[in-house]
TrEMBL record:
It catalyses: tartrate + NAD(+) = 2-hydroxy-3-oxosuccinate + NADH + H(+); (2R,3R)-tartrate + H(+) = (R)-glycerate + CO2; (R)-malate + NAD(+) = pyruvate + CO2 + NADH; (2R,3S)-tartrate + NAD(+) = 2-hydroxy-3-oxosuccinate + NADH + H(+). SUPFAM superfamilies: Isocitrate/Isopropylmalate dehydrogenase-like (SSF53659). Pfam families: Iso_dh. Keywords: Manganese, Metal-binding, NAD, Oxidoreductase. It comes from the Bacteria. Belongs to the isocitrate and isopropylmalate dehydrogenases family. This is D-malate dehydrogenase [decarboxylating].
Length: 355
């Protein structure tokens, strides 16, 4: 039987509650579809930082290198500044493994409730494709003259031609695989004078190679409004690192709950491991109670199996999630239920086993 090598990093807060449920469902899928998972567990987290002054060991990235993929919970906990915890663990993995695509589905599942009036599942079903290695997150800049009147900070946003073209190309390719073949670009070329006109230019250029794809573009501000007022307009939406970040919390929110939102950090060339994690964070406000929604994590596990070449198993998981919601199965508080994290995980694992 085939064995997939997975590095598991629960991280902080509810990551420690959602990852075990993700693994429970992955294990059920492995048994049902006849493959093995070789898991290596890493306890890297803000607790590691408190003990050692580092989020992960100096050779942390090398330790992950042999895995086919990384299955991550969430990173960040009060007491450790967010830019230290995230830049000590999550972001280096994305960048050093060149996981330049952040793929984030936004899908209203039957039986789950959208805050938008009168919207049906057929009307909210799109992907956010987020650039994941550069742009606004480039970390070039600094603070000068600290503590003086002349103090200032600056941060550059860097778009490389390679980085811009490859994410836009991925989005066009994804659009080609969808029935509507529609791609929307998030821009802000009215206010941001160098990077965003460049983004628009590369988008238009790439579009010439995909005449079958219908394209449009909106400035990020009105695009946010359209997500709420016209979610049915969207099929695939591509954006820079920060715009994609914002849209990928807004999209799942209009689709019901950030707790169900999944994401894949993909290195499409498979030169390096890809990473699968929910969109949400460590939720310190509800952590420790086992009331968080594990579906974002479980769905991320399905995206991981798809990437590993187990599409049937992936489909069984997403079908089980859809069935659970459509048939009124256990659901957590964020979706209007009373069930615990483990109840939802068990129900989905059982459905996968029985599929
Ligand atoms: P968050 O996603 O952790 O929480 C936002 C709100 O959504 C909270 O009210 C929380 O209770 C709720 N929520 C989130 N996930 C949920 C789930 N699965 N079920 C039910 N409710 C859920 O965002 P935040 O509060 O901005 O960030 C908290 C910490 O997590 C910070 O340290 C932040 O930097 C970090 N963070 C990490 C990631 C990541 O690891 N990818 C993503 C976002 C935030
Ligand atoms: C996400 C998160 C991260 C990001 C943070 C925690 C650095 O919000 O995965 O969406 O901005 O990429
Ligand atoms: Mn985010």
């Amino acid at each position: 039987t085939k064995t997939h090598r997975i590095a598991v990093i629960p991280g902080d807060g509810i990551g420690k509650e959602t990852v075990p449920e993700g693994l429970r469902v992955l294990d059920a899928a492995a048994r049902r579809f006849g493959f093995d998972l070789a898991l290596t567990h890493y306890d890297w987290s803000c607790e590691t930082y408190e003990k050692t002054g580092k989020m992960m060991p100096d050779d942390g990235i090398d330790q992950l290198r042999d895995s086919e993929s990384v299955f991550l919970g969430a990173v960040g906990w009060p007491g450790v500044p967010d830019h230290i915890s995230l830049w000590g663990l999550l972001i280096p993995i994305r960048r050093q493994f060149d996981q330049y695509v952040s793929l984030r589905p936004c899908k209203l599942l039957p039986g789950s409730k959208t805050p938008l009036a009168n919207r049906t599942p057929a009307e909210i079903d799109f992907y956010v494709v987020r650039e994941n290695t550069e742009g606004e997150y480039s970390s070039v800049g600094g603070r000068m003259f600290p503590g003086t009147e002349r103090e200032f900070v600056s941060q550059q946003s860097i778009l490389t031609r390679i980085g811009t073209d490859r994410i836009i190309k991925y989005a066009f390719e994804l659009a080609m695989k969808r029935p509507r073949k529609k791609l929307t670009s998030a821009t802000k070329s009215n206010g941001i004078t160098f990077t965003m006109p460049y983004w628009d230019e590369r988008f238009a250029e790439m579009g010439k190679s995909y005449p079958e794809v219908t394209t449009d573009q909106f400035h990020i501000d009105i695009l946010c409004a359209h997500f709420v007022q016209h979610p049915d307009w969207f099929d695939v939406v591509v954006g820079s690192n920060l715009f994609g970040d914002i849209l990928s919390d807004l999209g799942p929110a209009v689709a019901g709950s950030i707790g169900i939102a999944a994401s894949a950090n993909i290195n499409p060339e498979k030169n390096h491991p890809s990473m699968f994690e929910p969109v949400h964070g460590s939720a310190p406000d509800i952590a420790g109670k086992f009331i968080c929604n594990p579906i974002g994590q479980i769905w991320s596990g399905a995206m991981m199996l798809d990437h590993l070449g187990e599409p049937e198993a992936a489909k069984a998981i997403t079908t089980a999630i859809e069935k659970l919601l459509a048939e009124g199965g256990p659901r957590t508080r964020d979706m209007g239920g009373q069930a615990g994290t483990e109840d939802v995980g068990r129900a989905i694992a059982e459905a996968v086993a029985a599929s």
